[in-house]
């Protein structure tokens, strides 16, 4: 049997019962956390449906990162295609992230900034992650490097490729 609601007491006023509180609706983060927990729990138990759900969640998150990177590139106004000016070196692991050195060589007569989209792929060519890197103040006829760092831990052998580069 449920106990009666507590009473509020304000000096000089009669007691009145508290209204029962409405339960809160779960937030998107709570729902995602629950989905990931269920997916991981099911995956460790060998449930194929749970493994598929976990894979779908990772794919969805990866697609969202790629979309955000594309929006950053699209926000650059007055940029010109500079894919030929930029190169990515081999990948390595720094802590739990994959990194690659990206070098921009400015062939123009004035200093320029570069915004570069770098895509990380596994050895089968499958998309793993994408990041946007800005290399500011590359002098005329000079080169300057920056480090592209993955958004999450990537397992296995990876390569970095320049997906898009803008000079502005």
User: Measured on Cα atoms, how large is the radius of gyration?
Assistant: 26 Å
Poorly predicted regions are 26-32, 53-58
What is the mean predicted local confidence, pLDDT? 78
Shape: elongated
Distance between the terminal alpha carbons, to the nearest Å? 71 Å
Q: Largest sheet, order of strands side by side? A: 3-9-6-7
What keywords describe this structure?
alpha+beta; elongated; 9 strands; three-stranded antiparallel beta sheet; 168 residues
Sequence-ordered SSE layout with sheet pairings:
Elements: E1 7-8, E2 16-17, H1 28-44, H2 48-74, E3 80-81, E4 86-94, E5 97-105, E6 112-122, E7 127-138, E8 143-149, E9 158-167
Antiparallel strand pairs: 1-2, 3-9, 4-5, 5-8, 6-7, 6-9
